[in-house]
Amino acid sequence: MYYESTRNNKLKKKFSEVLLDGLADDGGLYVPKKWPKVSKKELSKFQNMNYQQIAFHISKKFIENEINDRDLKKIITKSFKNFSKKNIANIKELESNEWLLELFYGPTLAFKDYALQVVGNLFEYVLKKEKKKITIIGATSGDTGSAAINACKNKSTMELFIFHPYKKVSNIQRRLMTTVKSNNIYNIAIKGNFDDCQKIVKRLFLDKKLKDKFHFSAINSINWARILFQLIYYFYSVSKINKKKKYTFSVPSGNFGNVYSGYIAKKIGLPIDKLIIATNENDVLSTFTNKGYIKLKSVKQTISPSMDIQLPSNLERFIYDLFSKNNNLVKDYIKKLYKNKRIFINKNKIKQIQIYFKSSKVDEKETLLAIKEFFIKKKIIIDPHTAVGISAKRNLEIKNKPTIYIATAHASKFPETINKVIKRKVPLPEKNKSLLKLKENYKIIDSSYNKIKNYLIQKSKFVKNV
User: Fold this and answer.
1) Residues noted as catalytic
2) 85 assigned to some structural domain
3) What is the pLDDT of residues 234-277, one digit of tens each?
4) Is residue 465 part of a domain?
5) Which DSSP category does 428 fall into?
């Protein structure tokens, strides 16, 4: 299995190179040169497999012989050891044709753990084998940061710099990052929004003066390994529901990584009918899906902060597919987007987008109403992001279609919002209860590239003196 860049399809890289690189040298994102397939026979076998076994079978198709079977199984087993649910993911039947896929049983109570625990252990495995050390840089809109920190803490082969938007993540989201004691972790709060954090990460990767000083890698969903290990819960949920139907998934969406994994799952053989891209009032993905254009606006701060994004980086991977791997077209569209803050897609391409996706924008009033109604009718407390996913499907009036809602985070991460709606406190799980008493440690920096670059050089233990 070889990989190419969305900006250079002549590139030929192995999985381990793609893992450690994160972002391609040309600024593009890595994708496989050819998509593997999962046969109907294989799908039927998944019914008798647990989460870890399905993870092995799917990931092996993308890693092939770079990691032997024994070692890959060990990495996967180790990665899910600290999950609080024996089944790893939990599926609740809501009605005869609706299910809730709960993905918050990992160490940091969000779906990001399901990929990042594996990615952290893959990093360690490859780095030890190649006798290398890396500096990982990442931006977070709320949940990626804590999941990345938990996955990489206390590992001698790596150091991690995580940027989050100052005062724009929930108190619990921030504390899950800033209370971790580990000398290889650096938390930076940037005075700006998530898009500002993400732009800085990409600029650091492309800074030629830093190329000789660092071996950078990414842990955001720009890293292909993140996308790969998010495929697993799509396959797992369908295999455990075990009805011979095509499914619709409703996915709370910000950076397009989670729903893009669903798109890949469909491409390689999972019986998916449609993927619902559920957005909050930062609706760049819904205008792209429904009207075929992207118009960048200021990020609006909402009660679903992990989705407060205007520039979803994974969209480039889908655009690359949409334009039949035409590198020049991709580069042209991305250049126009950065320069003019807008791009328009050919009308024929809109129909192609809608073969895979439907999308709806959900405002705060609808989000709060969904939390309240779900609690009253189902006796289930959902977080604001999951509520956006449920509202989006209702808005689209999709009836009689088997639908799986992805529950992306534990409600206790957003206590103020939940308490406001249902007048009830949602306690943190037992293992996280000390969180509010622990001392925080993070650096607040202006949204200045040079200030952040200098902080990185000053703090890094792996920076080379060249």
Assistant:
1) 112
2) no
3) 999 999 997 778 999 999 999 999 999 999 999 999 999 999 99
4) no
5) P
